[in-house]
Amino acid sequence: MSKDNPQNPTELRADIERTRSDLGDTVEALVHKADVPARVKEAAHGKVEQVKDTAQHGADRVKDTARLGAEQVKDGAVQVKEQAATVAERVNTAAAVAAEKAQEAASKVTAQASKVTAQASHATDRAVQALPQPVAEQVRRHPAAVALGAAAALLVLWRLVRGRS
User: Fold this and answer.
1) Widest CA span of the chain, in angstroms?
2) pLDDT tens, 58-91?
3) Which among 42, 53, 40 is positioned nearest to 83, based on CA atoms?
4) CA distances from 100 to 2, 42, 62, 103, 105 (A)
5) How far apart are the first and last CA of the chain?
6) Which of 6, 32, 127, 138 could cysteine-pair with 11, CB 3.0–4.6 Å?
7) Interhelix angle 70-130/133-141, nearest 10 degrees
8) Are 155 and 119 in contact (CB under 8 A)?
9) How far is 38 from 46, CA to CA, in rounded Å?
10) For 134-160, what is each residue's pLDDT tens digit?
11) Residue 3 carries which DSSP code?
12) Quick count: other Cβ atoms within 10 Å of Cβ 36?
């Protein structure tokens, strides 16, 4: 009895449960990666907070400068305004770049998911045709379980191939 090829039903069930668990973790990770708008929104929120902190820092500097004289207050206010405009411009540029990259990543993930789905469907069809009749009937009755197993197998193969590259 080999760990890679379970021979009895108990080992097979345990192997299936491990594979389902691994696939569930992988799907959750892909969902997180594919949720690009939420990740962009989080990054934008962080940038807004950073801008707020920068603006607050600038305002504090203006207050300290006001104590030194009216002319220094005027100069300090101009500097803060220029810095805020520069920071806002940088944030807008970074947000635009992040949104573009997020869209590209989402497109790639979608394309890869479609490709993997097609490969899994093709592999499943071939595998069902090669099975003995009683097993093939069970596979036809439970296609979701078979699809899950095929997806898990493709994922394992993909990880193996990717690890060797």
Assistant:
1) 93
2) 878 877 775 777 677 678 788 888 888 898 899 8
3) 53
4) 48, 15, 37, 5, 9
5) 30
6) 6
7) 150
8) no
9) 12
10) 877 877 788 788 778 878 888 888 888
11) S
12) 19
Tokens for 11?
């080992």
d(CA 77, CA 59): 8
Tokens 């969902």 belong to which residue? 31
| Residue 151 backbone dihedrals phi, psi, to 5 degrees | -65, -40
Hey, what are 39's tokens? 């990740």
At 61, the amino acid letter reads R
Beta-carbon contacts of residue 150 (< 8 Å; ≥ 6 apart): 120, 123, 124, 127
* DSSP 8-state class, residue 19: H
Q: Alpha carbon of 17 to those of 8, 52, 109, 110, 152: distances in Å? A: 14, 49, 26, 27, 11
